Amino acid sequence: MAGIHVEMALPDRPDLNAEVAKEIVQKAIISQFAIGGRPTVSSRNTPPDVRITAGNANAGFTSLSAALDYLESHPTESVWAMNWDAPEFPLDERMSENFALLILAGPNFDTEREPLAWIGRPAKRSVKDFEVLPGQPRLVQAWRAAIDEAASNAGRPLTDVGYLIHDAGKASDAAGKRIATLGQALGEPLPEFDILKQGFNNTALMGNTGAGTALTNVALAVAYAHHKGTSVLVAGTAEADTAAAVVVTPPARTRVFDPSKDWFRARGGRDAYLPWWGLRRDVDWSRYRQGYSE
Known about the structure:
It comes from Parazoarcus communis. By secondary structure, this protein is α/β, with parallel strands linked by helices.
C-alpha cells in the first residue's frame, strides 16, 4: 500500500478544499495500513499518491480515465479510483451521500483471482463539437459518438450491450429529456433495446448523488455484468450538453445470480459493506454463498 496511486473525484464546492481533502485521504490510508510503521508490516514509508478531481456527476469518469492512464504506464501495479459526495450536506446519513472505491489491477499484476469484470476506457463528447443535422440534434450526435467510442474501448460491438445504468434522475422535465435523448441515441444501433425494461435509473432511487455518481454506477455495472454475463453501458447524463459513457464487459467465468437463493450481502449491515473481490483461482467456487468472496 505504500505509494499507492489514488484517483479521487469530489464535489466542486467552495467549502471543500481539494488540498485539505487530499491530506485527509493520505493520512487515513497511512493510518489504516500502518505505512511507515514496523518493518514487519510496512517495507517502506512512501505516502499514497492522491490526485483529486473536483467536479459534478461525471467527475468519476475523469478519475477512472486517469486511473487507467496510470495502469497503462505502470502495468505491474494497482490503482484506486474513488468518488464521494454528500449533496445534502450538512444533513448526513442520506441515501444521496455516496462513496465508491474501485481497486484496479494492471495487466501484468497477478491478483491470483478471477476478474469480476472488465472496465473499458470512458468516452466523453460535447455538443459544441457537432453541427445540427436534420433529425439529429447535437446532443444525440454526441451520445452516439460517446457510446460508439465506449464500446470500441471495451473491445466489444455495441450490439453486445444488454443493460443500461444511468443517472437521468427522478421524474421531471429534465429527467424525461435525458431519457428521451439517450433513447434516441440508442434507437438506431440497438432498435430492440428497451431503455425502461433494460435500464436502471440509479439517481431516481437515491436522489442526486453529485460527484458520487459515476463510479457508483460503474460498480453496479460490474456487479450486473459479473452475475448476468452481459455487457453493460454506463451513461452519465446529468451534466448539460455532455455525453459520458463506459462499457463494462463480463469475465470469461461468471457467477450467475440465482434469485431463489440467499444473497450474502443482504444478511446485515456488517456484511453489506465488505469489499467484493474476485474469487481466488485456487478454491472451489461451489463452497461459497452468493455474493461472498474472501
